[in-house]
Design brief:
Length: 318
């Protein structure tokens, strides 16, 4: 972990008055200039974590510093470093794009800077809409306005809570490019997302939260390499009732009512075992008409992580 993280979270917990443990002893350091994607099922604690860092929710225990400022003791200085794009499209319907973004900048005590506001609006393809009332804009444009408002005070950290919710595929791709450009300008970005392909496409690191616990934080490439699996699917000429005893020790599975034999292997090892498997199938007289290999996606890894986390969490609750 690098010596100077832009956000440092230590032993962060949140228990609501109802007794619900939204976060349990979370430790996390976010690197300056990275894109970190936070994944987790609904109710896992993603939004609570963001809300605490942004000063909207008070932690029950633990500490958070944002760009060197404690978020409780030095709230104003910490908050000035942070831009937040919330999930909900709540904007000032009757205001123009220019006036609402300029007003957001003023809220942080920043002197007016029309040239900077113009740059933000141009970067977000909003310049030609600057005099339009927000109520006249499409959902995708309204989300861009929220991003412009979050950037209006020149933050070094940007939180995007479900940035692509309700945005069509074309706009989503445009938004990904825009986020990359922001990272290129030196902004650290933390995004929560339900679209796992968004995390796969965008993130440098992945954090997985489940039931208030951070169960994993890992470089995306390392995560895909360590937990990703490759599968070889063989479409059989004749369906099998069972996997033959001679193959019982291999990581094989019969699917599609015996028509497909699936072999799972580790692509990182030199010896995948595929050649030996094909030899054994030939010896057993098992013919196949087609074969193809596939790699597990980040979604597969995420599902397996959250699923693997369930029994331990149940035990803990008991």
């Amino acid at each position: 972990m690098q010596a100077n993280p832009i956000i440092s979270i230590q032993q962060l917990s949140k228990t609501y008055a109802s007794g619900f443990h939204a976060l349990k002893s979370v430790d996390l350091e976010i690197r300056r200039g990275e894109i970190l994607a936070l994944l987790g099922p609904n109710g896992a604690g993603k939004t609570t974590l963001i809300s605490i860092i942004c000063g909207i929710v008070k932690p029950s225990s633990g500490t958070v510093t944002a760009d060197g400022h404690d978020i409780v003791r030095d709230y104003r200085a910490a908050r000035a470093k942070i831009g937040l794009v919330p999930q909900e499209l709540s904007t000032d319907a009757f205001e123009t794009v220019w006036s609402t973004v300029s007003f957001s900048r003023g809220l942080y005590g920043k002197a007016p800077n029309p040239a900077y506001i113009e740059k933000v609006l141009r970067d977000l393809s909003l310049w030609d809409k600057k005099d339009s009332k927000i109520m006249t804009l499409s959902g995708g444009m309204k989300r861009r306005v929220l991003i412009a408002k979050a950037l209006s005070h020149e933050p070094t950290i940007l939180f995007l809570d479900e940035p692509s919710a309700g945005v069509d595929v074309e706009l989503r791709k445009g938004m990904w490019q825009m986020v990359r450009d922001l990272q290129g300008s030196g902004v650290t970005i933390i995004l929560t997302t339900h679209y796992i392909e968004e995390a796969e496409e965008m993130a440098d690191r992945i954090g997985v939260i489940n039931k208030g616990e951070l169960i994993l934080v890992e470089d995306k490439a390392v995560l895909m390499r360590k937990l990703g699996k490759k599968q070889l699917s063989l479409q059989l000429q004749t369906p099998l009732q069972d996997i033959p005893a001679a193959l019982a020790g291999l990581p094989l599975e019969l699917t599609q009512e015996g028509h497909t034999l699936v072999y799972t292997f580790d692509s990182q090892t030199e010896e995948t075992g595929i050649a030996a498997l094909l030899r054994q199938l030939a010896e057993l007289g098992i013919d196949f008409k087609d074969l193809h290999s596939s790699e597990s996606s980040l979604e597969d890894i995420f599902v397996s992580l959250v699923h693997a986390d369930q029994p331990a969490t149940h035990k803990e609750a008991a």
